[in-house]
Amino acid sequence: MTAASNDHTQSLQQRVARAMAAKTPLFITGGGSKAFYGRETAGERLSVSSHRGIVNYHPSELVVTARSGTPLSELEQTLAERGQMLAFEPPHFGASATLGGTIACGFSGPRRPFAGSARDCVLGCKIINGKAEVLAFGGEVIKNVAGFDVSRLMVGALGTLGVLLEISLKVLPLPETELTCVLELPLTEALTKMTELASGPLPVSGLSYDGRLLHVRLSGGEKAVKTAALRIGGGAVTADSAYWHDLNDQRLDFFATEMNIWRLSVPPAAEPLALAGDWIYDWGGGLRWLKTAAPAEAVFAAAEQARGHALRFKGKERGGEVFQPLNGKLRQLNQQVKQAFDPYGLFNPHRLYQDW
User: Fold this and answer.
1) Residue 316: per-residue pLDDT
2) Closest C-alpha among 100, 247, 87, 90 to residue 165
3) What pLDDT does 3 receive?
4) Stretch(es) of the chain classified as CATH 3.30.465.10
5) Among the four 21, 48, 185, 306, which has the fewest Cβ within 10 Å?
6) Which CATH class name applies to 4-173?
7) Distance (Å, rounded) from C-alpha 106 to C-alpha 86?
């Protein structure tokens, strides 16, 4: 499955070397499906979309390695043909989604609390750093735990630490059967029910609440899934997966708005936050989408008080703070990591924070 003609490592490295010599910032892009995410950035466009293809795939080892420009749909189709999937269920946000953009943004879908996040699934990567060096971290071994796990630093870094070239991921078998139970519950009861189901023995693979209906997805062997559905009871049961696809790719009516949409990560059992607006709960309550006109300061403060963090996922204003501000040691550590990988500030300047 190797496509040597689609390996553009050398030309990408040369481009970074020229940018380093001229101290010219670079705006790294792939399919552009997630261009809305993060702060406005600047620089010459550096596309990795042609650097594509599956480099290695070992179905028996549950490991795949692909180049960053590989279309996400192409990778998922290849895995599905062998009865496997990306465990973290990444959203696409468009047909042009690539693996590199998915990992750079660090997005994970509804399956995340039950099968692991994008960061959990990354085994290794190859990058070009800000000194135009090609570096490889990790590998294709699931038990690779030696040393500092640099490869997972790239997950969610939005390309600010380097140009992703290749990513190695662990994969999982596709479930034999999936069913979704739908129960109508008030908010407090829904949160309690999600906490109960998330910590119980049932084969749960999705827990979402839209303000009226609690959706419980069950995945696994047919007998176990049907038995679990009977135990949950009290509502409709469907094999239709449309709700989960629409939630994951934000095609629900909730997301069709000109208002700011915030993404808040908090402990799943946290009480409802005192912020005006409309909510959708995912990850059993650990991920909360908020549609609101509230100012950024109020959202950040509420998330911090709940021992979580917030980011403005979508909105018209991208010049201010988009991500929860970093303070103290955490801010210092992040700046040191940035300096180590990108000492000249070449990659996606200001995409994460205003000062780097």
Assistant:
1) 76
2) 100
3) 57
4) 4-173
5) 21
6) alpha beta
7) 13
> Any idea which residue has 């023995």 for tokens?
201
Is the Cβ–Cβ distance between 229 and 237 less than 8 Å?
yes
Contact 170, 142 (CB under 8 A): yes
Sheet of 260-265: strand order equals 236-238, 177-184, 213-220, 204-209, 278-282, 287-292, 260-265, 309-314
CA separation for the pair 289, 234 (Å, rounded): 26
Alpha-carbon span 68 to 26, nearest angstrom: 17
State pLDDT tens for residues 324-354: 999 889 999 999 999 999 999 999 999 999 8
Q: Model confidence at 145, in pLDDT bands (50, 70, 90)?
A: very low
Q: What is the pLDDT of residue 255?
A: 97
Within 10 Å of residue 183's Cβ, how many Cβ atoms? 17
**Cβ proximity of 26 and 17 under 8 Å:** no
What is residue 132's three-state secondary structure?
coil
pTM as predicted: 0.93
